[in-house]
Specification:
Blueprint: E1 2-4, H1 10-20, H2 40-48, E2 52-58, E3 61-70, E4 75-82, H3 91-102, E5 107-112, H4 116-124, E6 128-129, H5 132-142, H6 147-151, E7 153-157, H7 159-164
Amino acid sequence: MIRICETADFDEIFEIINDAAEAYRGIIPADRWHDPYMPKEDLRHEMDGGVVFWGLEADGRLLGVMGLQDMGDVYLVRHAYVRTAERRGGIGGALVKALYEKTTKPTLIGTWAAADWAVRFYEKYGFRMVDTQTKNRLLKTYWTIPERQVETSVVLADERWWAANA
């Protein structure tokens, strides 16, 4: 079952993000890696900033989470993670499809450029990578991230965004 996450899910969201983010260790630039990958204060800041997490739950346990943030003229998919032990079971796909069905505006996704598996995953669901100049503009407009992260990230956009920006 896919459901909106609540305050009581905070520790489980934190656990999922940091478990799944181990896939980035040694892949993303070393200066962007933290241990834990996302500290609790950062997760709280993201949630307080409007990231609403949705989770796929089975047997009373969250298996994966994906955040959705309404930025006014676009939605951002934020912090999409599936427990390491549950990967390749369709959880990420179910979440991205369910969240996308909830959006009515163009939707953007940012991820690490070196995480080629993440880029392929989103492309499988119809998102396309924008060019570098557009990526830089979008990241600086909609995300609050350090310049180094802008340099090492990519942005993918849905068909609504492409149609509106053709």
